[in-house]
Amino acid sequence: MFLPIYIYGQPVLRAVAKDITPDFPGLSELLDNMRDTMLRSDGIGLAAPQIGKSIRLVVVDLDVLSEDMPAYKDYKKVFINGHILETNEEYDSMEEGCLSLPGIHEKVSRSTRIRLSYLDENFEAHEEWVEGYLARVIQHEFDHLEGRLFIDHISNLRKQMIKNKLNAMVKGKVRCSYKVKTIK
Ligand code: NI
């Protein structure tokens, strides 16, 4: 089932999301719906706040990139109660976009390696270092769990340049191919 994507201006995108427990009602259905939503909106990652839920769930699907990056063939993963524990101090810069900010693409500097903790779908705990493009995607998605958006990382000048687009979103003027929920 496709869930509408919450758009910039929605307070849930600015809230710190909470950990969940294995008895969270309807969890596997929710994860299925999140994967469905990500797939149908051509996203490579989706965090629960983007569908209006302030809980620490992230789904990632990098398989679509595997033509250019073969290492990500069949890379589909769920991160429950994810937290970033450590980041290295080497950075690279790359253009990012976000389903909650349609039409905006900006270069964002991120750590090239991060250490994270999370639970898988069986609620088994993992702790690992990831790097490269995956490290970027996870930082972007886990930012959502802290109430941060990728535009928080760009310069004031760039923020100024996208101000009108952001204001339009807050007023409910959004053009994209998937169903959304704006604040107005
Ligand atoms: Ni995003």
Explain the overall architecture.
The chain has 184 residues and is an alpha+beta fold. It has one domain (5-181): Peptide deformylase (Peptide Deformylase), CATH 3.90.45. The protein is 23% helix and 27% strand. The chain is globular and about 45 Å long. Nickel (II) ion is lined by residues 98-100, 140, 144. Residues 98-100, 140, 144 line the site of nickel (II) ion.
Walk me through the topology:
Blueprint: E1 5-6, H1 27-40, E2 45-47, E3 57-61, E4 76-87, E5 91-96, E6 106-111, E7 113-119, E8 125-131, H2 132-145, H3 156-170, E9 180-181
Parallel strand pairs: 1-9
Antiparallel strand pairs: 2-3, 3-4, 4-7, 5-6, 7-8
Bound molecules: nickel (II) ion.
What is the tally of helical segments?
3
Going across the major beta sheet, what is the strand order? 2-3-4-7-8
Taking the alpha carbons of the first and last residues, their distance comes to: 23 Å
Main beta-sheet annotation: 5 strands, antiparallel
Judging by the overall fold, what is the CATH architecture? Answer: Alpha-Beta Complex
Question: What is the strand content?
Answer: 25-35%
CATH topology: Peptide Deformylase
Number of strands: 9
Distinct small molecules bound, one entry per kind: nickel (II) ion
Number of domains: 1
* CATH class descriptor name: Alpha Beta
